[in-house]
Amino acid sequence: VQLVESGGGLVQPGGSLRLSCEASGFSFSSYAMSWARQAPGKGREWVAGIDGAYVDYYADAVRGRFTISRDNAKNTLYLQVNSLKPEDTAVYFCAKKDDSRRGTMKSLANYDYWGRGTQVTVSS
């Protein structure tokens, strides 16, 4: 299994980015996937998830500003991040949900593979 994130960068407050996560080594369409982030000096937090039926879920802090999507034909997960704030600065990771665990999308313990992350910096 391999997950490779891209699309991060430096953006001004109010700006937008589109993050991508290319997946390989497993049947991508069969698994729920999520994005999580880790800000400097803080723990990793779940941001958004999408299941195999394309139902999406969001953390309260990003609902209405971020949109998660997937293209199963391209084995790629996306995160459109809009109206960025300085507090969105973090390394953003994609993760594959472990379907042997029945836990919720929000619990990071329920993910078995992670990418190495892409840095998003929001600053003027």
Whole-number radius of gyration?
13 Å
Helices, by number, come to: 0
Helix content: under 10%
Order of helices and strands: EEEEEEEEEEE
Structural class, please?
mainly beta
User: Which blocks of ≥5 consecutive residues have pLDDT under 50?
Assistant: none
Number of strands: 11
Shape: globular
Characterize the main sheet: 7 strands, mixed
Mean pLDDT comes to 96
* Distance, first to last CA: 37 Å
Beta-sheet strand percentage? over 45%
Task: Give a nutshell description of this structure.
This protein has strands at 2-6, 9-11, 17-24, 33-38, 44-50, 56-58, 66-71, 76-81, 90-97, 111-114, 118-122. It is mostly beta strands and 124 residues long. Strands 2, 4, 5, 6, 9, 10 and 11 form a 7-stranded mixed sheet that branches. A 4-stranded antiparallel sheet has the order 1-3-8-7, with no helix packed on it.
Describe what you observe in this structure.
By secondary structure, this protein is mainly beta. It has strands at 2-6, 9-11, 17-24, 33-38, 44-50, 56-58, 66-71, 76-81, 90-97, 111-114, 118-122. The strands form 2 sheets. Strands 2, 4, 5, 6, 9, 10 and 11 form a 7-stranded mixed β-sheet that branches. A 4-stranded antiparallel β-sheet has the order 1-3-8-7, with no helix packed on it. The protein is globular and about 40 Å long.
Key words describing this protein structure:
124 residues; mainly beta; seven-stranded mixed beta sheet; four-stranded antiparallel beta sheet
